[in-house]
Design brief:
The protein has 455 residues and is an alpha/beta fold. The protein contains eleven helices and 14 strands. The chain has helices at residues 2-19, 69-78, 93-105, 110-124, 133-149, 195-202, 218-233, 280-285, 334-337, 348-352, 365-377; strands at residues 32-40, 156-163, 170-178, 184-192, 245-250, 265-272, 289-298, 311-316, 328-333, 381-390, 401-412, 416-424, 429-438, 446-454. The strands form four sheets. Strands 8-9-7-11-10 form a five-stranded mixed sheet. Helix 2 (69-78) packs across helix 4 (110-124). It is flat and about 85 Å long. Residues 82-110 and 337-342 have low confidence and may be disordered.
Length: 455
């Protein structure tokens, strides 16, 4: 019963506090924006839910989604500094009563109260978000772009401003969106003037994400562009800039060229060419196929270590896999090797077993991704930096083959770690303590011991 009374009291005080208008400081022809609404007129779907997050400006956040506490604080503490001490919050009787109680029971100094008022107004409070016609125009443009990305090229947006009360100076904006017809993909054409890439792409069109008869979706086309780039790079072509692949959308005569269901259609032209590449040197490198060569591993990399710092380099070749002829070079600061008693380094094969950039294998971008994921799964390194470096001495210009050395710069986490967690409830108290040790047996192990108890 006492809890219910406490919640009721807090609720009443919040309602009374919210009665102090957040808009009392607004000038003539200024209105506080309290709500943005997106209303789809002709079509429905979850794909339109994100349109709300494009609207600007964002409204002030409310406490419990009901009370404008922060804007009320700003209005009555920050913007009304010239008010005297008798109006502590506003002119409502409940606040005068609170002030008189404080004045009689607690001997606060005036300066202390003023500092409190300034802190509430400047730090806790926030100014009300105002209705702005230019922001409405910008929101309409963002909606138009988003609808076009989803295939609705003829979407229309009509804003409606509603003033909640004549004397409240509050307003909300409703964006009425008419999507109209969705455009579909009629046909897809490839224009590839790089012979080395043409065979790779045309032989894999069955796995294309963009297909005839699908609704036009710009996000899907972005994924298809990324897929084509990865496909080329996984076939050994290292120098493949992102701008090599472009997708053009032809909407000419789309409303006349409709599909069997009567939808307007577009034509896609996927271009893979040298038009965007101005450098002749880059164009030449794009025709070379690359293979992996040596691997250089910094197991204790520190960005603060200078390039001229003394390093120890150890050559390692795995004996468990005879097919792996990779030369692994483990590099670490010289000071580390001189203090083995204080520092435990890794067993070499614990690192080499999770690296996929093996010697004489055809370069593949996916091998970099796999190596990163496996090293990251060891949970021993806070920063993982990977880089491919062309070995110009092994370059074969006649057969257009190149070789890449890979470098892994691994910044270690702290060997020992502790964490404590505690939760308290009315009927139970829970305490947990966790100890972690990384590389305890020099095999990149991750040991976690947890102690917990409850009362």
């Amino acid at each position: 019963m006492s809890r219910l009374f406490a919640f009721f009291t807090v609720g009443v005080l919040l309602l009374l506090f919210a009665a102090c208008s957040s808009t009392r400081i607004l000038k003539q022809n200024e209105y506080m924006l309290v709500q943005n609404v997106v209303k789809m007129e002709d079509v429905k779907g979850r794909q339109f839910d994100d349109l709300y997050y494009l609207l600007r400006p964002e409204t002030n956040r409310k406490f419990m989604n009901i009370f404008n506490i922060k804007t009320t604080l700003y209005a009555h503490y920050q913007a009304k500094k010239q008010l005297n001490l008798d109006s502590i919050l506003c002119t409502y009787p409940v606040h005068n009563f609170l002030y008189k109680s404080l004045e009689k029971g607690i001997p606060w100094h005036v300066n202390r109260y003023r500092r409190l008022k300034t802190w509430l107004g400047e730090t806790v409070g926030e100014p009300p978000v105002l209705l702005d016609s230019t922001q409405i125009t910008g929101s309409i443009e963002q909606i138009k772009i988003a609808m076009k990305k989803m295939g609705y090229f003829d979407a229309k947006t009509r804003p409606e401003v509603m003033f909640l009360k004549s004397n409240s100076k509050k307003a909300k904006v409703i964006y009425h969106i008419t999507a109209n017809e969705c455009y579909y993909i009629r046909e897809i054409h490839y224009r590839i003037d790089i012979p080395e890439y043409r065979r790779i792409i045309l032989s894999d069109t069955a796995n294309s994400l963009a297909k005839r008869g699908q609704p036009y979706n710009e996000d899907l086309l972005a994924q298809e562009r990324k897929r084509i780039l990865t496909l080329i790079r996984d076939k050994g072509y290292y120098y493949v800039p992102n701008e090599i692949v472009t997708i053009e959308v032809d909407t000419f005569n789309s409303t006349a060229l409709r599909d069997k269901k009567g939808h307007p259609t577009v034509r896609l032209d996927i271009l893979i060419n040298f038009d965007e590449i101005k450098s002749r040197d880059i164009q030449e490198k794009m025709t070379y196929k690359y293979r992996f060569n040596n691997v250089y591993i910094y197991t204790n990399y520190d960005v603060r270590t200078g390039r001229d710092a003394p390093m120890d380099t150890v050559l390692f070749r795995t004996l468990r896999n005879r097919l792996d002829s990779t030369r692994y070079f483990f590099i670490r600061p010289h000071s580390v090797s001189d203090s083995k008693k204080k520092f435990r380094d890794y067993k070499y094969r614990a690192i080499t077993d999770v690296i996929f950039t093996k010697r004489d294998q055809t370069y593949a971008k996916s091998d970099f991704t796999r190596s990163y994921n496996r090293i990251n799964a060891l949970n021993n390194f806070s920063i993982i930096s990977m880089e491919a470096i062309e070995n110009h001495a092994l370059k074969d210009t006649s057969s257009k083959y190149g070789f890449l050395d890979t470098r892994y710069q691994l910044t270690r986490r702290k060997v020992h770690g502790t964490a404590m967690e505690m939760s308290m409830r009315t009927d139970k108290t829970y305490l947990s303590f966790t100890y972690t040790n990384k590389n305890i047996f020099r095999g990149a192990e991750y040991l976690s011991i947890n102690f917990y108890g409850s009362v």
